[in-house]
Amino acid sequence: MGTKPRESNLDESTLVRWVKEYASGIRGYVTSLLHDAGLAEDFVQEVFLRAWRQRESYVEQGQAKAFLFRIADRLVIDHRRAKYGREPDSRIALIDLVDSAGLTSIDEVISRESARRIAEGLETLSPIQQRVLLLRYFGELRFEEIATMVGCPLNTALSHARRGLEQLRVHWDSQERVGPGRVTQENKS
To answer: What CATH number labels 95-179?
Structure first.
């Protein structure tokens, strides 16, 4: 007797539901890493195309989001390796995304300024800290899933997140003291 082949839980209606639920988060994650909204949109489509192509081997275990973000992460890494010959050591620059948002209300301006400060803070982090935090907050992934995706033990992923958040907090606090357009003794010269 042979083993019965696994049946995939990935059908067209599931894929449509995934696009509605996860495309925005994947787009944000990829855009923040590649700094190219057009390319990110192409990558989002490629993520779902690859998910569909892998449907025969996919069995639902409550990890659809991790499955999709893993595909997105691999696409980003492959793109960077093809473009730079290796994973670049560059920093994330979300500022252009914030500037291109075309926000008008006071709340939107305040939100944009906060996003700008967070983006500047992300630039101070190591690439692994950036990935861990972006997967956590854009992808809303569990740390166990993030650790698997970035290839490190759970406690290491948690440490990267903790240290990254501490660095962001230090950056945020320094911006609070200085602020845009404020002159202090340190930035007078």
So the answer is: 1.10.10.10
